[in-house]
Amino acid sequence: MADEKPPFASIDDEKIPSRSTTSAPDPSQTADDALLVFQGHENDESLSVSPADNARLLRRIDLHLMPLLCVVYGLNYLDKTTLSYASVMGIRKDINLKGDDYQWLSSMFYFGYLAWEYPTNRLLQRLPLAKYSAFCVVMWGLVLCCMAATKNYGGALAVRFFLGVFESAVTPGFALFTSQWYTTAEQGKRVGIWFSFNGWGQILGGLVAYAIAVGVRVHGSTIDPWKIVFLVTGLLTAFMGTLFLLFMPDNQLNARWLSPLDRRRCVARVRSNQQGIGNRHFKLYQLKEALTDPLTWAFAFYACASDIPNGGLSNFFSQLIVSFGYTPEQSLLYGIPGGAVEVVALVVSGYLGDRYRNRILISMGGLVISILGMILIVALPLHNNGGRLAGYYLTAAAPTPFVALLSLISSNVAGYTKKTTVATVYLNSYCAGNIIGSSSISSLPPPK
After folding, report:
1. Lowest mean pLDDT: which of 75-84, 136-145, 337-346?
2. Prediction pTM value
3. Cα–Cα distance between 433 and 11 in angstroms, integer?
4. Phi and psi based region of residue 354 (left: phi greater than 0; alpha: psi -120 to 50; beta: remaining)
5. End-to-end Cα, the chain, rounded Å
């Protein structure tokens, strides 16, 4: 499916008549924030963006937005998979997990995510985008710290549920940031870059967990090592959420690092997207368009099906590596290369998808690599620990099609209500797949 023909038959909020059979409200009462930029400047020739100006603005946008988006998104993955590290560092024994308790503890994150996904998408549309996103980042960091205080299974379930509630804002919010600042030709690569920090999160998490485990073993500690992991990652996330609040603009209109003229030019350079930069008005006709568009449900089906394996791997990868014959400490370190594979796969897929204007076809390469990895895990002899571990590393390339579809929602779905609705359906399906995957895995033997 080539990008030249957007997969969603959608329209711009204000400038193009809707194709829906439902009559749209009066545009004068539901205008996009972008119109505010051009009021009084309709004939201003300074708003024309030359190639040199466009390149300069793009560099400036990348410099100020991408580091925050990347680091916070990496922490998003690290925080929800910290439980996997804790599973081989003593949490099972300390909070008395039995039977399939760990599976349900893993799944509870996605129940919280699923429950709050639609409300959080409405809040992302209704409230200042950066401020609400920053609030959620700070709150999920503080909630993660609470995991260190849990004494039993019930308390851990509650923490995991609210962790999912607050993290549910991140992916749809970051897709909105990307769509409002970048042209459609630029978005696939950027989504691939910030999503690739899932891999960097796994790299950082493995290093931190390994350092803590070794430090506690050598020097001792009055705090259990798994509790230290939750406290370190949670406090780091809350700190980054504070920086996000201070430095991330809601849109071009309040970017302090842009002059008034450059703010208008930044809006002008994305006018070709025909999507605006923000609209806080709920539009029923766009909701109906999203829910009746067959491709919304095609995307949802893929998200659910593809994330069934992810639900198992992301929550059990440390235990999986232990089952290959390695020690719990080694499993913390040996999970790191999987993160590196994910980084390379997503960056390359995003770059080539934008360059050749066919994100979906190119992203399938990562899926093929991950299937090969799964075959190695299943088909190699049990004594071939190295080969099976290499197979696990290859499975880390699996997210490339998921990210390609997410970038298409960002670039090809116009209208804020429709975009947030499609994102809600897509990410709810992602949650469903992860719940099925986490709940379907038989308990692996506890680490010795």
Report:
1. 75-84
2. 0.84
3. 30
4. alpha
5. 49
